[in-house]
């Protein structure tokens, strides 16, 4: 009993020492930035470290889902320590903007890098990377000529041949939002119901599991994000590697509006205590050096025009992107979820 | 008329005098502690008056029926299997001698240390194409073997093998302390071992078994990670769906509150059902040490096999899968400071376990010393935090603490948040969430202390505190140690709450594991997960020794 009390004291002292050191540091240099991020990638941590070394600004990271971070910022209000919010989809950034959590940034460097469709109309948020939601198909069972568009997946010929993850997933919600935006609510609902009919199994697992299911012959087509295939093709695990090699990537809707693309993006918090540092941080993440890392280690499509795609991505060829205003995805997110439920997409 | 009126006034005065007589400082103290613990839960409760949002009809029409059905299935299936695994293994290890007993005794606790979503990933990987099972079947010439666990039954299985230790720990504490004396007596009276177990020990073990089971059910009801991966929509899926996807926190809170009522109803029903049974018994000071039965070798092996089933399912298979993944990903961890992460995780879990057990003890005994029955019942509200998803508890903690923080900043007393973004908010939230985990084993072990002992001590002039320290404390020590271990392990693997409330400079192994898993790099989550298990082993081994010393 006594021992445990000593232990406890020791820990409390150790922890408080650590935090005290931090706060002292902050006061003398006042150089830090508080990052609320939904991105959990290893490569991001390496990027943050490089930024710290180059700028001398300490990066404090809070890692949670975008929804939780937004809720946290709402509750913290004006005193929120958050400087920037990073999400993995445009819809959540739009939501943060709607809730008045972000502020406009006019920065010449950022403007020179990003084309207008990759940022908010009012400069509340900016894209960092792009990811496409594509079809992968079993090379031995599907003729790519049979494939055409997302809408085509509703065709009865795909009965029992499609796998896709649950509608709780944000990437599916964004895809659905884009279909609502392009085809209208009624058609979108019919489309979802038809796809549910064509599913080879009820939705489960993550994107990688869908690829594995196609490779194993459980289904012929899966709807997945591009960078997962990139990662699987570079996996340490032989099974994942084999699975990824058995499938091929197809970019849908090339004869129409283009393939659905979503972004991972960043916005400066409305009450950011370190606004200058936050801008510097965004400039860095959009720099060629940082974009190169996003592209090569995480297989995302870079937004910097001078940075090339990773070799694997290049091998799939270039494709036409759906240039739908990304804010639209945020506006239609709730509708998308409701239609999913009504269509019975688990 | 006048007489009737007087009657009313008299009865009112009577109850008032009774109230005045019974109320003591412990009543106030209990209510104060309760308030501290329950503020986050109440904060959520207050939102109830606003009613659910406009999506409510959508949710009841399309989602709730199947969500409820799944949650119900899971709760029932998991109850059956965890009792089967937990009680049988607890009885066998306390009553019989068999090979490997000492190792098995604490291996049975370890499954708790693996976050259940990691167990889910591990099992899915184990039985997937190219997994261990497929390789094994290949020897028999079966190609492309796969067992699909990703359904409600698979989920019930995975949750059962990772949660049965709750039942094991609480029933073992009972068997160690009580059962042997009773059994001795029953045997002296000529009742067979089997009959004594079924007719005497098992009914008496009920509060202990239920204490563990309540934790299992609450954990099952608010599991999110494993259910989401397996594509099984549960009640908690509904909470997150309405909160995030439908953007209606009020609907999410409404659903959480329904869940709370459900769980509280369950607890009350159980209490009501066993209302007339008195469980207390006197443990004589010179009780014999537990002497295990030594059976013939063959039967010993048989027992070993039976006890090893839950160990293999809950520990060896997931750990084997994790080790395989760890081997494949070891290179990328060469320069990671996993030891420092382990140390931080250990520290936070230690502090949390200490405070949680402390508050649970205080709440339990203050409410005992207070004489008002209503206050005694109210104290049970303190355990509700465990039934709510961690992310919702985090919000419940942030609302009142931010109020204080903002007030202090306004008054110019501080410049940065004092509670939020520091260890205070985090540990506070843990205590709110895990109070039940400490309270259940403590309560069940305190039930076994007959009231006559502390009563006679008080008649002899000792105060509440002294009686507690000298008499009750030693008697409930086993329960306290179990409570400490359980909270420690639970904190080690806790996730959503940690993510939302943790200070910048603190990182835990669970957070590390989650970062990989959420990025679909499940294999990379193996090494941090193994470190969680190693860290959990420290108190398990250490406290197990203390527990056995008690024996």
- Largest sheet of chain A, if any? 9 strands, mixed
In percent, how helical is the residue content of chain A?
Answer: 40-55%
Give the helices and strands of chain A as they follow along the chain: HEHEHEHHEEHHHEHHEEHHEHHH
Content-based structural category of chain B: mainly alpha
Shape of chain A: globular
Architecture (CATH level 2) name of the largest domain in chain B:
Orthogonal Bundle
Secondary structure class of chain A reads alpha/beta
How much of the sequence lies in strands of chain B comes to under 5%
CATH level 3 topology of the largest domain in chain B: MetI-like fold
CATH class of the largest domain in chain B, named: Mainly Alpha
Radius of gyration of chain A: 22 Å
Number of alpha- plus pi-helical segments of chain B:
24
Give the mean pLDDT of chain B: 83
Strand proportion of chain A? 5-15%
Describe the structure.
The complex is a heterodimer of chains A (346) and B (551). With 346 residues, chain A is of the alpha/beta class. In chain A, 48% of the residues lie in helices and 15% in strands. Chain A has helices at 2-29, 42-55, 66-76, 90-98, 108-113, 170-183, 185-198, 207-215, 226-233, 238-246, 275-286, 288-298, 311-315, 326-331, 333-343, and strands at 32-37, 58-63, 84-87, 125-138, 162-163, 221-225, 247-250, 261-268, 301-302. In chain A, strands 1, 2, 3, 4, 5, 6, 7, 8 and 9 form a 9-stranded mixed sheet that branches. The model of chain A is unreliable at 17-30 (pLDDT under 50). Chain B is mainly alpha-helical. Chain B has 2 domains: 24-53 and 334-507, MetI-like (MetI-like fold); 59-324, MetI-like (MetI-like fold, Orthogonal Bundle), CATH 1.10.3720.10. Chain B contains 24 helices and 2 strands. Chain B has a two-stranded parallel ribbon with strand order 1-2. The chains are: A alpha/beta (346), B mainly alpha (551). Chains A and B meet through α1, β2, α3, α8 and α10 of A and α3, α11, α12, α15 and α17 of B.
């Amino acid at each position: 009993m006594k021992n445990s009390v000593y232990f406890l004291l020791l820990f409390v002292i150790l922890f408080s020492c650590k935090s005290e050191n931090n706060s002292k540091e902050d006061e003398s240099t006042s150089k830090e930035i508080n990052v609320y991020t939904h991105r959990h990638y290893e490569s991001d941590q390496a990027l943050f470290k490089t930024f710290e070394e180059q700028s001398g600004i300490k990066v404090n990271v809070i890692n949670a889902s975008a929804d939780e971070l937004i809720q946290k910022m709402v509750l913290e209000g004006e005193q929120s320590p958050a400087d920037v919010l990073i999400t993995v989809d445009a819809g959540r950034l739009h939501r943060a903007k709607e809730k008045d959590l972000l502020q406009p940034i006019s920065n010449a460097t950022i403007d020179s890098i990003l084309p207008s469709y990759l940022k908010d109309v009012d400069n509340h948020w900016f894209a960092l990377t792009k990811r496409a939601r594509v079809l992968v198909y079993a090379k031995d069972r599907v003729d790519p000529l049979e494939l055409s568009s997302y809408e085509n997946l509703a065709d009865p010929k795909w009965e029992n041949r499609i796998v896709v993850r649950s509608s709780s997933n944000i990437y599916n919600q964004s895809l659905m939002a884009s279909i609502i935006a392009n085809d209208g609510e009624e058609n979108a609902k019919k489309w979802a119901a038809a796809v549910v009919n064509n599913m080879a199994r009820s939705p489960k697992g993550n994107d990688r599991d869908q690829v594995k299911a196609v490779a194993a012959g459980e289904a012929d087509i899966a709807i997945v994000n591009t960078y997962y295939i990139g990662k699987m093709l570079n996996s340490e695990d032989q099974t994942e590697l084999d699975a990824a090699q058995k499938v091929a990537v197809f970019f849908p809707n090339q004869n129409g509006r283009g393939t659905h693309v979503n972004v991972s993006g960043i916005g400066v918090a409305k009450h950011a205590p370190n606004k200058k540092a936050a801008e510097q941080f965004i400039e860095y993440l959009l720099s060629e050096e940082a974009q190169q890392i996003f592209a090569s280690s995480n297989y995302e499509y870079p937004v910097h025009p001078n940075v090339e795609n990773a070799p694997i991505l290049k091998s799939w060829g270039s494709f036409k992107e759906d240039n739908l205003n990304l804010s639209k995805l945020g506006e239609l997110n709730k509708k998308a979820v409701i239609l999913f439920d009504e269509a019975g997409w688990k | 008329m006048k007489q009737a009126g007087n009657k009313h006034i008299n009865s009112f005065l009577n109850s008032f005098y009774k109230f005045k007589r019974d109320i003591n400082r412990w009543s106030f103290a209990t209510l104060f502690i309760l308030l501290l613990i329950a503020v986050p839960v109440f904060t959520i409760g207050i939102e109830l008056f606003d009613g659910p949002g406009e999506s409510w009809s959508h949710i009841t029409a399309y989602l709730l029926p199947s969500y409820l059905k799944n949650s119900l299935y899971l709760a029932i299936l998991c109850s059956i299997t965890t009792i089967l695994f937990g009680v049988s293994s607890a009885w066998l290890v306390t009553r019989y001698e068999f090979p490997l007993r000492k190792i098995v005794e604490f291996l049975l606790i370890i499954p708790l240390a693996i976050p259940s979503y990691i167990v889910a990933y591990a099992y899915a990987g184990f039985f997937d194409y190219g997994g261990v099972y497929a390789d094994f079947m290949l020897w028999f010439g079966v190609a492309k073997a796969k067992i699909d666990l990703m359904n409600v039954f698979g989920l019930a299985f995975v949750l059962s093998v990772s949660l049965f230790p709750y039942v094991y720990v609480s029933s073992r504490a009972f068997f160690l302390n009580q059962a042997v004396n009773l059994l001795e007596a029953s045997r002296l009276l000529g009742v067979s071992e089997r009959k004594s177990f079924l007719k005497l020990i098992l009914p008496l073990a009920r509060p202990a078994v239920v204490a563990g089971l309540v934790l299992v059910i609450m954990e099952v009801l608010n599991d999110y990670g494993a259910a989401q991966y397996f594509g099984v929509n549960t009640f908690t899926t509904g909470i997150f769906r309405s909160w995030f996807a439908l953007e209606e926190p009020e609907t999410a809170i409404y659903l959480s509150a329904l869940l709370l009522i459900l769980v509280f109803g369950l607890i009350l029903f159980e209490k009501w059902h066993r209302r007339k049974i008195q469980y207390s018994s006197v443990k004589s000071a010179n009780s014999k040490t537990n002497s295990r039965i030594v059976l013939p070798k063959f039967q010993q092996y048989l027992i070993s096999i039976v006890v090893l089933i839950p160990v293999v399912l809950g520990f060896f298979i997931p750990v084997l899968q994790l080790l395989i993944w760890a081997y494949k990903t070891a290179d990328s961890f060469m320069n990671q400071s996993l030891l420092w992460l382990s140390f931080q995780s250990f520290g936070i879990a230690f502090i949390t376990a200490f405070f949680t057990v402390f508050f649970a003890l205080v709440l339990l005994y203050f409410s005992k010393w207070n004489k008002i029955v209503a206050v005694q019942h109210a104290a049970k509200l303190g355990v509700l935090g465990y039934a709510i998803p961690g992310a919702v508890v985090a919000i419940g903690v942030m609302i009142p603490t931010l109020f204080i923080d903002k007030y202090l900043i306004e008054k110019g007393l501080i410049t940065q948040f004092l509670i939020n973004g520091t260890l205070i908010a985090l540990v506070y939230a843990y205590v709110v969430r895990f109070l039940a985990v400490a309270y259940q084993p403590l309560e069940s072990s305190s039930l076994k202390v007959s009231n006559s002992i502390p009563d006679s001590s008080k008649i002899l002039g000792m105060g509440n505190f002294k009686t507690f320290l000298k008499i009750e404390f030693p008697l409930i020590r086993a329960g306290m140690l179990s409570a400490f271990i359980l909270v420690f392990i639970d904190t080690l693997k806790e996730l959503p709450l940690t993510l939302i409330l943790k200070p910048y400079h603190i990182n835990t192994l669970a957070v590390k594991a989650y970062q990989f898993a959420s990025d679909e790099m499940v294999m990379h989550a193996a090494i941090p997960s193994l470190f969680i298990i190693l860290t959990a082993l420290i108190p398990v081994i250490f406290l197990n020794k203390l527990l056995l010393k008690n024996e």
